[in-house]
Amino acid sequence: MVKLKDTYPLYLNNKAVLPNTDLEVTDKFTGEVAFRTALATPDVIDEAIAGAVRAAEPMAKMASFERQAVLQHCVTRFRERYDELAYSLCVEAGKPINDAEGEVDRLIDTFKIAAEEAVRNYGEVQPLDISARAKGYMGMWKRVPIGPCSFISPFNFPLNLAAHKIAPAIAMGCPFVMKPASKTPLGAIIMGEVLAETDLPEGAFSILPASRDGADLFTTDERLKLLSFTGSPGVGWDLKAKAGKKPVILELGGNAAVVVDKDADLDHALERIIFGAFYQSGQSCIGVQRIIIHDDIYDTFKAMLVEKTKSLVSGDPKDRNTFIGPMISTGEATRLKGWIDDAVAGGATLLCGGGCEGNMLQATLLENVDPSADANREEAFGPMALLSRFSTFEEAMAQVNDSKFGLQAGIFTRDIHKVLDAWDTLDVGGVVVNDVASYRVDNMPYGGVKDSGLGREGIRFAMEDMSEIRNLIIRRENAG
């Protein structure tokens, strides 16, 4: 039987520190305080940044195999603490246990990929004799760590989205300070506990739960050479404006669309779309929000979706039969309930769901939603999806692109020509064929365009962002 502790520390320059227990973290299903953690004050954050600066040189000098060994240790320990990690997600995030275990699997995958990439930091030999003046010259370049990094991770994937910052930083040799979401800090704290068992140089990492007001240093401090933020678009773009000269990587929101063409396997599409729209109560930036269905199959597929949605079990996320757990807070559930009610008042048809009690919002399907409604234009980040029709594939592509977001899109079709047209046409970071936009493998380049962000995650691609290219030019003495 897994049991969480009553209190947890923060990690300051590789060490567990408990200066206070000011942050209360609730069980998102019961609403009761589950545990308390230390809350970092501005002076602690400043000390962590100073430690990261001191650690920059020894981190950069670590051999590839040494960084790999750290990451391999994490993989081993995460496997040993699998049940604890999954249970912590159930409690602090309200994530159904089956989804929680899936996230722990991805955490392990992410660190495994990083361990492999830690010894693949390749450069290039480049001929420079492209003209007479460069005869006898040759060039080489390599990637070097960018230096101390700042990471801010969100509440919805407390383990894996933190891992997508921490693991590539270690693989590249960058010290870091991390602010996990205050509603779900435990996953990152446990990662800090595991990292503290390794031989990383002092100051290589700090895991610092902090209030938003007390966390400006994560963004504005010039000693930090890169900011990587995953979270809401409004916060992300505001941080970018404050970040100064440092590069900023933003993984932000979306209102992902999926297209179901008339030749699709409807049974397969049904299972995947229900998953994409409602897993972990829809609290995913690539959760399916807009379902665009061909006229010829619209009525049939709508009936299938409604029947399946009504059958989903909601309740305690610790129960293996539960598919719909609580949203992260009553405020978030109330917000989305308001969007649903506004859409219905504006002429939309409520096909199923729509009820809300506390932070438990029923899985909801709507159709005929006004294109200008918040439910269509904004990011729902909850268990709600909208149905619409199309008659031509070009019309479907236009509907997908009619969004200020552009993270990923899904298409169910057997027509390879339509697949290639979508790849060319859709203004998104990724097109997923015969699956939902919610699909992600942790080594692929992942990120979006428009209001969905800047840059790409996926270990190798994150390592590129966490590095600088350093050139070497050599002139042979006997060059003519």
UniProtKB/TrEMBL annotation:
Extent of the signal sequence: none
Top-level taxonomic group: Bacteria
Keywords noted in UniProt: Oxidoreductase
InterPro entries linked: Ald_DH/histidinol_DH, Ald_DH_C, Ald_DH_CS_GLU, Ald_DH_N, Aldehyde_DH_dom, ALDH-related_metabolic_enz
SUPFAM superfamilies the record matches: ALDH-like (SSF53720)
Active-site feature positions: 251
Family statement drawn from the similarity comment of this UniProt entry: Belongs to the aldehyde dehydrogenase family.
PANTHER family: ALDEHYDE DEHYDROGENASE
UniProt name for this protein: Aldehyde dehydrogenase family protein
